[in-house]
Amino acid sequence: MARPLWFVKLLKKTFPNIKIIAKLTNFPILGKIFDYLLFRGDDIIYLPQDKVIDINIPLGEYNEYVLPSQVLEYFINKAKNHWIMDFCICRSSMNCQDYPVDLGCLFLGDAIGIYSDSVENLIHPYVRPQENGNRTDVRWVTMTNKEGNGLLISDVGGTNLNVSAWPYSMEDLESAKHNHQLPRREFITFNIDYKQRGVGSFWLHRKYILEGNKKYSYTFLLRGYTNDMGDINLV
């Protein structure tokens, strides 16, 4: 059964003296008290020292279960303690924080859809300026002005694209030491890539490395776009 939080904290503090406490349980009265405090409501199986228990349980076929939201809400409300996490436990435990989103992360990856935003909101202000804002698994993208006129880029090779846009140049990124040193140019640097390596520990995993001794190719289409052409999804 679940124990109150204060009891869990008490166990943590007394755990270094576990051997002394274990000896105290040899006294019948103290043994019953510890038994009640520690194991009340639990199903306990005592394993004999002179016997062997053979465990061979067929698991059978795996069944999928869908829990309605009301069931999840019930258990959340029933819980005595709620833990609020400000990190992704899956990506932290698997050390894949620096992997591309297109690996299929259910927690951080966005669903396939049509998104729009300004170039300023697409960049990421790293402490030390560097390449940033890469979007993966892109089928098509447009760069348009306030009037809706601009350039349409679409993947036609079936590989999908990696794209990013900056209000400054690559030279600006390489020369700047701090974010405030990055200017805002009168042009947009638009990067159209096949793939990109990650950062951090990414290089440790060979299957995600873009090796220099291999040939890569990708094909995309460039086309001018104006509002007069109608719905961009039909162009």
TrEMBL record:
Keywords, ordered alphabetically: Glycosidase, Hydrolase
Recorded GO MF terms: beta-galactosidase activity; carbohydrate binding
Native source species: marine sediment metagenome
UniProt cross-references to InterPro entries, sorted A to Z: B-gal_small/dom_5, Bact_Beta-galactosidase, Gal_mutarotase_sf_dom, GH-type_carb-bd
EC number: 3.2.1.23
Protein's recorded name: beta-galactosidase
GO biological process, one term: lactose catabolic process
Catalysis: reaction(s): Hydrolysis of terminal non-reducing beta-D-galactose residues in beta-D-galactosides
Any one GO CC term of the record: beta-galactosidase complex
